[in-house]
Amino acid sequence: MKGAGTLNQKEARYILDTIAAMFPDAHCELHHSNPFELTIAVLLSAQCTDETVNKVTATLFQKYKRPEDYLAVPLEELEQDIRRIGLYRNKAKHIQALCAMLLDKYNGDVPREHEKLVELPGVGRKTANVVVSNAFGVPAIAVDTHVERVSKRLGFAGEKDSVLEVEKKLMKRVPREEWTQTHHRLIFFGRYHCKAQNPQCEICPLVEHCREGKKRMKTSPSRQPKQKEKEAKL
After folding, report:
1. Stated pTM of the model
2. Which residue out of 126, 152, 161, 169 is catalytically annotated?
């Protein structure tokens, strides 16, 4: 069953190509100019929109250029600088701890290796995947809420799969050289088209491949008169 993540290769390829055609220019929307800024931006983006993060980092990255800069101010000052971000107190602590570790272990540079990145405070698997793929060109699929939702709706993964299981199933289905671009395209598809609350099923070219989309279209008001007509004829 497709909901269990058992798409065949032909279906998977069709879905990937369709999304690629819809969002050919999908990219990382977090503003950054180097791996360090990207790491900070992704850390801030947890449970927060990229739009809000970009507003905050527009001034944050002017004030703080290097790890030393984040450690040169009291924690309370950093908290105030990012207070528009959700969970800002925890994130401020993580940023200062992360900067201390970068200086202590990596001469102030962000490591390129995934296993070293996930050891940094506030950096989980998703953040590490975003950093290695966007900053260092290493193929990776980061699973955020958009990628998880779209992958489950379109049958790349099962409804009850964990984030890690979704990532592993996508890695099996998507050619390695397409991992990073597919990650961006799935995010754009989920953010701008296949939204959590109001997905655009009526104009979606993939609705026949989507269990939830087919269900929504059956119950959509525009379809109900036709359904009643059919029932009347029976």
Report:
1. 0.86
2. 126
